[in-house]
Amino acid sequence: MKTRQTTDRSDGPHVAEVIRLHEVIAAWTTGEAANTDDSFRRFAGALAPGFMIVNPGGVAEDRESVVSRFRGLHGARAGRDFRIEIHQPAVRRETGDVTLVTYHEHWFEGAEEKSIIIATALLQPEPEAPGGLVWRHLHESWLRPPVAP
């Protein structure tokens, strides 16, 4: 098994997939994406069987829980000019066909930055996935949590 460690790669298919999925998340939650099975598959189809996330609050969720919860979030941020920007993406390690990527998520409503999350994602090629990669694991931590209104 070949292992390669790097901290300076910020391009390529893995970073493109991180950006793609967060664009899908923003479009779904603002209602810009159609509330259809095909549109929803752009999110759910990217999560591998056995996927797990540790969210910024420290709660672990399996794929089924994430998919079910996210399906209900269609349009939850409608009218808020919501977007997610990905900063400092980097491929940290590649072992065989599994790649570890880190990045910062900056969440905005209009010009106001609402929160920042640092994330580590484990991605693997899957030709049937919407972006050609599936997410195996995701761990997020607050760098700056949102301020309650």
Walk me through what this model shows.
It contains 3 helices and 7 strands, in the order βααββαββββ. It has 149 residues and is α+β, with helices and mostly antiparallel strands. Strands 1-4-5-6-7-2-3 form a 7-stranded mixed β-sheet. β2 (47-54) and β3 form a beta hairpin. Residues 1-8 have low confidence and may be disordered.
Give a nutshell description of this structure.
The chain is an alpha+beta fold and 149 residues long. Helices cover 23% and strands 47% of the residues.
Which features characterize this protein?
7-stranded mixed β-sheet, 7 strands, 3 helices, globular, alpha+beta, 149 residues
Largest pleated sheet: 7 strands, mixed
Number of domains: 1
Strand content: over 45%
How does the helix and strand content classify structurally?
Answer: alpha+beta
Strand numbers in spatial order across the main sheet: 1-4-5-6-7-2-3
Q: Please give the number of β-strands.
A: 7
For the record, the CATH class is Alpha Beta
Count of individual helical segments? 3
The mean pLDDT is 93
Distance between the termini: 50 Å
Rounded to an integer in angstroms, the radius of gyration calculated over CA atoms is 15 Å
Secondary structure elements and pairings:
Elements (H helix, E strand, L loop, with lengths): L2 E7 L3 H18 L6 H8 L2 E8 L5 E3 H9 L10 E14 L2 E12 L2 E14 L7 E12 L5
Helix pairs in contact: 1-2
